[in-house]
């Protein structure tokens, strides 16, 4: 029964979202930084080639607009419609460079299908180099833009921005989605992927990447990845290292994953490069975070990728005088997935995150 219901949801999602195109690309007549401004994208009415736009997003508090940079590579022949996106959180930069480099390598005359690239749909976060969208009303409210999708037409600014992106950019133009992130400020990931393994095509996407670790994950309500999957569009969240900086190794491997996906789906010609199989990616289904129980100066005693055993000491905190005031141990066997990079950590701050393998049947595809 569950399989039947998931198939019905998939079919309905495709009917309502993935196969419904815009009426046409709508040009406002304005230009920003020399780029034409559009209020709706329809890749179908674009000629073969590379295209750049500014998408007119939600209104600011003074009635102007946030503008989202879009790039489109339209192939000479029909094929898959792929989304490459970065900047859903404004302090996560490695993905931005990956998307830029991927688009620079594409040759539309040799392509089948299309690639849409979105840089920084969370305009408030990008401008502040911050994870959240800052709503100006009532003294400022901070909202996680990756928890409000598919948005609301008459919602608050991040909800309305999400609605505009879904209905005016993604709709009809996306059949596969790669959403690039990093860990948030003060922490770091390896090349790591969240993937809903209940969907075979999502599994394929994830394992085309030369990731260090993959988590089988049922998803997060309101996130980009989960909302795409719920609408019948295979998608993964690709976490690419640490925030606020460019890490060339992470960028290179994240780019290889994107090119592998485009090659696998015959959007471009080529050979599959390094991937989960060649890199022997660690795949887990359950993770947990070791969190600070007090404020203090943290020392992390393990590195990303280290194997740890339950009960092993992984971190400690000292007070301002150098006395140890708290020690922390792993709550499971597994691999270190993320660590704090900030020394000063308040109560409940993440110190170490561990990805493990839970043998319970209920966790087969993530828990």
TrEMBL record:
Residues 78-264 form the Succinylglutamate desuccinylase/Aspartoacylase catalytic domain. It comes from Aeromonas cavernicola. Its cofactor is Zn(2+). InterPro entries: AstE_AspA_cat (IPR055438), N-alpha-Ac-DABA-like (IPR043795), N-alpha-Ac-DABA_deacetylase (IPR053138). Residues 1-23 form the signal peptide. This is Peptidase M14. Keywords: Hydrolase, Metal-binding, Signal, Zinc. Pfam families: AstE_AspA_cat. GO terms for molecular function: hydrolase activity, acting on carbon-nitrogen (but not peptide) bonds, in linear amides; hydrolase activity, acting on ester bonds; metal ion binding.
């Amino acid at each position: 029964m569950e399989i039947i219901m998931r198939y019905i949801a998939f079919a309905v999602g495709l009917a309502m979202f993935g196969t419904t195109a815009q009426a046409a690309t709508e040009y406002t007549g304005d230009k920003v930084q020399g780029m034409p401004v559009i209020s709706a994208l329809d890749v179908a009415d674009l000629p073969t080639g590379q295209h750049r736009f500014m998408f007119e997003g939600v209104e600011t508090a003074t009635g102007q607009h946030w503008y989202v940079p879009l790039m489109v590579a339209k192939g000479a022949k029909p094929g898959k419609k792929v989304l490459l996106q970065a900047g859903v959180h404004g302090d996560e930069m490695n993905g931005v460079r990956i998307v830029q480099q991927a688009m620079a390598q594409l040759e539309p005359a040799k392509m089948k299908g299309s690639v849409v690239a979105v840089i920084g749909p969370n305009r408030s976060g990008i401008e502040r180099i911050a994870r959240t969208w800052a709503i100006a009303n009532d003294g400022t409210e901070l909202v996680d833009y990756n928890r409000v999708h598919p948005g609301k037409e008459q919602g608050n600014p991040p909800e309305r921005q999400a609605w505009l992106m879904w209905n005016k950019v993604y709709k009809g133009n996306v059949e596969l989605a790669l959403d690039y992130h990093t860990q948030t400020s003060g922490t770091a990931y390896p090349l790591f992927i969240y993937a809903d393994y209940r969907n075979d095509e999502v599994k394929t996407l994830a394992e085309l990447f030369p990731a260090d670790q993959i988590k089988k994950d049922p998803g997060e309500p309101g996130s980009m990845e989960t909302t795409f999957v719920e609408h019948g569009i295979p998608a993964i969240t690709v976490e690419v290292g640490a925030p606020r900086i460019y890490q060339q190794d992470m960028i290179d491997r994240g780019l290889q994953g994107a090119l592998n996906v485009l090659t696998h789906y015959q959007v471009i010609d080529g050979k599959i490069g390094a991937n989960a199989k060649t890199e022997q990616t660690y795949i887990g289904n359950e993770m947990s975070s070791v969190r600070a129980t007090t404020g203090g100066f943290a020392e992390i005693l393990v590195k990303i990728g280290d194997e740890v055993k339950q009960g092993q000491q992984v971190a400690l905190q000292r007070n301002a005088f150098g006395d140890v005031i708290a020690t922390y141990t792993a709550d499971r066997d597994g691999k270190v997935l993320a660590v704090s990079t900030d020394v000063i950590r308040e109560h409940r701050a993440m110190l170490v995150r561990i990805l493990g393998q839970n043998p319970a049947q209920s966790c087969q595809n993530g828990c």
